[in-house]
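quick one before i forget lol
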Amino acid sequence: EKSMSWKYGYLEMRAMVPYYRGAWPSFWAVSDGALGNEKSKADYFVEVDIFEVFSSFNTAIPNIHKWYTDGTHTQYNGLRESNRYVHKNYDNLRYEYHTYGFEWTPDKMTVSVDGVDYNTYDLNDNYDGRSDMSGFRDNLFILLNNHIYVSDLGATTAGTEVNNKDLPFEYYVDYIRLYQKPGEGSLNYAD
């Protein structure tokens, strides 16, 4: 079994995502423990939510987080309506494949659905005014999860009640691909 982390490039996943009330699928990345020769200068590790579906029938929400070593946490989130992606035609959305993209450069992170950019984070803008943004230039691990949402996790776009007839919430991934420009970024493996 191998592990991989990377820095910079365009990451893309084509998947059939379970957009259901009560479902909480996501496509995300973290820097905590990521492979690579570089040691972070940041006093936090990074979480980048390329998207999360917070119990929604049609909405993908991005977030970026700083998890500080002193136990505190800050985030710049997509819970604002202008930062999220809302699928216009969603009658069969949970049965359709869509492409979720994440472009990462030293200056920005941009998320997209089906080639449409819907949110960009400026990595030169220190959103919490604490520390700096150097952690967003550390290597990242890719993660996928398919949790069930519960009401004590916060606001959702469609409620949290799970309808048992909708179970199981199936998350099908056709592919995940990473594209990098020669000489830009890094790719790290370990056994």
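fyi The CA atoms of residues 54 and 155 lie 8 Å apart.
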